[in-house]
Each structure stands twice: as structure tokens, then as C-alpha cells.
Protein: MFS transporter
Organism: Herbiconiux aconitum
Amino acid sequence: MTDEARPIPSASSTPSAPTAPAIPRRAWQALIVLLAGMFIALLDTTIVNVALPSIRTSIDASEATLSWIISGYALAFGLALIPAGRIGDRIGHKWVFFTGVALFTVASLACGLSQNDLQLVVSRIVQGLAGGMFVPAVTAYIQLLFPFRSRGKAFAIMGAVIGVSSALGPIVGGLIIEAFGAENGWRLVFGVNLPIGIATLIAAAILLPGRRESDAVSTSINGPAASASPVKAGIDWLGLVLVSAGLVALLVPLIQGEDEGWPLWTFLSLGAGALLIVAFGAWEVAYAKRGRSPLVPPRLFRHASFTGGVILALVYFAAFTSIFFTISILWQAGLGHTALESGVVSIPFAIGSIVGSSQSGRLAQLLGRRVLVIGTAAVAVGLAWVWLVFLLTDPSDLTNWELIAPLLIAGLGNGLFIAPNAQFIVATVDRSEAGAASGVISAMQRVGSAVGIAVIGSVFFGTLVISGQTPDAVATGFGASATSAMAVSVGFAVLAFLLVFTLPRRTGAPGGH
């Protein structure tokens, strides 16, 4: 296949009444391929939750390993996003996407074949890095291949795929484990990615336009690109090393500390992590002053609202991604339910998320920031209701019926927040900074997921006390731990609600994007 340019003719020959440029069929084909990749990357953020108890018994995984399986994936995913986007800008997004999907598919196979804790955690981290490599190409291609007025439709489809893939994860995982058993089912949970990944690779090689072709299509429908920035291009590798080392130094003791009894090294690691994050900030400032392009441009944080929005992204994702980590372990390890029954618990949340996300764009235009206020309030109320159910119900009597209403409310709120939140955070900075701001927000969402699981896992297993071997004693121990963990999730959700008020009332505010 060649990458020869195929300009798209104008949709109108009447100069006095121009119409929007036609969207080439190739753009829709490319979008399908790109969203197939995004589907498996985001499916893997939730499908593994219901498999955690099976992994625990199958390979005798430690409690810390269960947290690493989720946190390691999310952290690696987030750290790869910004450099992958920069590399794609320089060499073209097609082959960065192809390489990322190929590595993700191989890493998925390695996860399924893992024989011990270490193999599985390493494979999950590689899988996360691969996901972070190819996901930036999705938004990049939407910017290149779709006219400005049509991007909203493309992004709405992308938002729907995000919602559906995340919602389907626990259900699909539960069905697989139910069909193939706990011993082999969790391995096949990772195997779902193989046929989709291989099909995506073939389609990407054929249908994704290369750099020259995508630039030509972009010029024909969007006009010539803006002149290049005087800032020197390049990847801020030292900045990436500093922030990666700092986040790992913070996460390792949060995940391993409880398992090992909080020895001295855990506190030293926390201190070193804080120092590395400070060093990263100082380096970014110095790097920018030298006229280079830092990983996280310090100028973004001159906007107080952007700083609040970044913290909001981190805190919100820490709250909502940890919910089903808690519920899956309680439902299976504590209450003795199957993986499928654990997946069924998430259905109200999934339905709410899909309904909420389908209406979020229209409501954001109508209500402005209030749609995020309503969304985060609903999540906080829903999680607080779940916490009350855990607190007031005897664990042995707990069923999914008590959680239908609160999880539906939380899901509706999640759908209202997830799709439009980035638009409002980006609206806090100047238009010229929108691209850099979007990359930082995406990375912080994934880092928030990693931090949330690390904290919730530490609280859950740190408070777990089982005073007997009877089913009632096990249920009581896990129920008390789930109550403590859910209380932390509620705290994150309430903080996210408060942080929403730092954002502009409308995305069309001065300086907004």
C-alpha cells in the first residue's frame, strides 16, 4: 500500500455559499479501525476486575499483586500517552498505532500464559505501555481527517465506545469465567484481545492513511496547518524519567506497604517520590526556559482553574475506577459468588453510564458546567448510598438488589461527567495550549486510576480481619473491609464534586477551546 495523497474535492462550487467540506469515506473507515484499538485498551481497564479473585486462587497471587494488576496497567498507560503523541506528530501516527496494537496483543497473550505473580504484573505493565502508545492516535486522526464542524460527531462516537467498552468489561469477564471455569477463564479474559488485536492490525495496515495522505486530506478539508511554533521540537526524556520514577516511588509503598507491614523502606520511598516530583517540576521550568518543549508545560499551571481541573481529573478517576475492584473482591472472595454474578452487579452502573454519556453532549451545551456538577453529585450520592448499604446490611444477607438503585445513580453521574469533563478543563487555558492541556489531562486520568487502586487496595487489605473459617465469618471480615474501602471512594467523589467549581461555567469562556 502506498501513502500517496488523494485530495478531496470541494463539496460546493458556489463561492458565495460554501458548505462544510465533505468527509471522505476513508475517514470513517479509519475511525472504525482506531476505535477497535481503543475498545480493547479500555475494555482491559475493567474486564480484569472480575478475574482478580480467580487469579488470586489460580496462581496464589498476593494481595499486592491484585493491586498491581490494575494500578500497573493504568500508570504505564498514563505515562506513555504524552511521549507517544509527540512521536506520532513527528513520524506519523499510523505506525505508532500499529506498533502499539501489536505490542498490546502480544502482551495480552503473555498475561494469559503467566505462571506467577511477577510474570503477570510485568506483562500487564507492558500491556499498559502499549495501550498508551496507540490511544493518542485516535484523537490525532480525528483532528486530521474530520472537518472542524464534524469532529463533534466523531468525538461523540468515541465517547460512546469509551462508555460501552468500560461498561461491558465486568459482564464479559464474568461470562468467560463462568463458561470456562476459574482456573482457565481468567486467562481467556486476556485472550479476548487476540482476535480483535489481529483484526485491528490487518485493518490498520490497509485502511489507516500514512502521514502524507492524512496531511493532504487534512489540508483539503481543514485548510493549511498553522505555522510551526518557534519552540524546539523533541521529547523531554529526562522529564519522563523523573515523573515516572517519582510516581513509581509513591505507588510501590502504597501497594506493597500493607502486605509487608510498612517497613522503613516504604516511608523512605514515599519521601523519595515526593522529592522526584519536585525535581520534575523544577526541570520542566528550566527546560521550558531553554526554549524546548517540556513534557508538561509549566505555563499551563499559570491558570489556577487548570490546576484545579487537573486535580479533579486525578481525584475523580481515583474514585470511580476503584468501585468495582472493591465490589468484585467482596462478591467473590467474601460472599462466595461467581464471577458472572459479580459482573451482573455492575449492570446498573453500565446502563447508567451509557444513558448518561448519550445525553451529556446535549446537556453540556444547555447547562454548561452544571452538567459536571450534577454528574459528580450523582456519583457522590450513589457511592455514599453503596457505603450505607455495606454499613447497615449484614454481609451474609447482601444481594445485588440492594445496589441496583445506588449504582444506577452513580452510573448516570459517571456518564454525564466522563464525556464532557476534558472540554471544560481545556477551556481554562488559551486556545494555543489546548493540545498540550489535553495530553496532560489524559495522563492524569490514568495516573488517578493507578493511585485510586493503590490507596483502595491498601485500605481494603489493611483492614481485612477474618475471625474464623465459617462462611459468615469470612463474609463479615470482607464486608467490614469493603465498607472502609468504599468510604475512601466516597471521599474521593466528594472532593471531585467540590473541585468542579474551579472550572469555567461554559466552554466558550474567554481563552476557552
Notes: The radius of gyration is 23 Å.
